[in-house]
Amino acid sequence: MKRQANLAIGTAAVSSLLLAVACQGELAPYPGARIAVDTDLPVPRAVERLRVDIYDEAGVWLETRDYPRLRPEDWPATFSVFTADERRPKTLTLRLRAYSEGAVRDYRGPRYTAPATFSATATPTKLSQVCAALPLLPAGQPLTQRRGAQALTDDQCDDQATTRTGPVGARVEITEAGRYRFEVVRATPDLLGGVDTTLFLRRDCARYESELGCADDIDAAKGNFLSRLVLDLEPGSYALLTGGTLPNQPADLTLQWDREDRFVPAPPEAAPPVGEGIEVPGPRLLRGGVDITPSTEPLPSATVDQLVRVKLVPGQYEKLRFTLHGACAGSEAHLVFDEQHRLRAEASTSCGDTGKVLVPPLQTLPLDYGRPRAAGSYLDEPCV
């Protein structure tokens, strides 16, 4: 019987392969591997799906599969890869991604961002530091700053909203008399219950007595605890400052102001949408000349993303096991492509063995032999 050239993934391919081997006992097995992919994250709380992308030795994108794995007992997920080329070994690169249901973004080719080096953002410890470094905020433009947890002002906003957290501030130059609107248009993180702010305007940043107005919640009944202040002002230089009535609530606050009749809140930054017919750069998944590239991909911030290299050897059918660790959640694999959109050897993981493509060890025992499921062990909690 002539064997057809093919590379398959999934249980259907495995069944066909094993049946073919059983019926033709005189033939050596196809070069292949049975792979078990586990995760130590809680299921389904943090992980509900497994995405598998396969690249051949030349870096060509061969296959993609996306499996729902909604129950702890669905892990480890197992599948097989094999090739009908029995003349020489072949090496495949597998991209394994465990992620939450619905945590996807539009596919627009490789968009790798190197992990940022963490450095704590310094926040003022005295009001004099805030006042000495007030940035000029032009009309109509947003300005985002980080406030600390320590209260630095004594503002009480008409005795109803005593300041209990740190401020941010800006210098405002009014060039014509009129009615002006000042607002905290956004706060990050968007905490459960909302970030709380107050907003006040002074002629002298450091002097409470120079305050011209103060505002607390925009709409507390609807859960908007940010602040908006509208005042009639004469030309001059003013200090715009924030406070907050909840203690120890650091946050990134975005300030904006303009004449009230011209005020348009600046939208949050967002990636431009991919419209119908717009060419998407990067590798494409083609089958028989037809583009079957998925329109979405797992969102990196909600995904454990690892690259694994698997060697298929003629006459051998290997067993491999790999765990997607919660410690690597949010660490996007670094995929490097050439001008023909083929995956290059420089591709690497971004967590654990940074700069390497992982090669899982061969297993000599059955993949489920004496192995408890890892799901949930990373957070040491039951998967319920």
Give a brief rundown of this model.
The chain is built from 2 helices and 20 strands. With 384 residues, the chain is mainly beta. The chain has 2 domains: 1-107 and 293-384, no CATH class; 127-262, Sandwich (Jelly Rolls), CATH 2.60.120.
Structure description:
This protein has helices at residues 11-23, 127-132, and strands at 7-9, 32-39, 49-55, 61-68, 77-83, 90-99, 104-106, 143-147, 169-174, 178-188, 198-202, 211-215, 228-233, 236-243, 251-259, 286-287, 290-291, 296-298, 303-312, 317-324. It has 384 residues and is mainly beta. The chain folds into two domains: 1-107 and 293-384, no CATH class; 127-262, Jelly Rolls, CATH 2.60.120. The strands form six sheets. A four-stranded mixed beta sheet has the order 1-5-2-20, with helices on one face. A four-stranded antiparallel beta sheet has the order 4-3-6-19, with no helix packed on it. It has a four-stranded antiparallel beta sheet with strand order 8-15-10-13, with no helix packed on it. A hairpin with a 2-residue loop joins strand 16 (286-287) and strand 17 (290-291). It is elongated. The two termini are 49 Å apart.
The domain count comes to 2
Query: Which range does the strand content fall in?
Result: 25-35%
Shape: elongated
- The sequence of SSEs as H and E is EHEEEEEEHEEEEEEEEEEEEE
Strand order of the largest sheet: 1-5-2-20
Mean pLDDT: 79
Assembly of the depicted chains:
single chain
Write out key terms for the chains shown.
four-stranded antiparallel sheet; 20 strands; disordered N terminus; 2 helices; Jelly Rolls
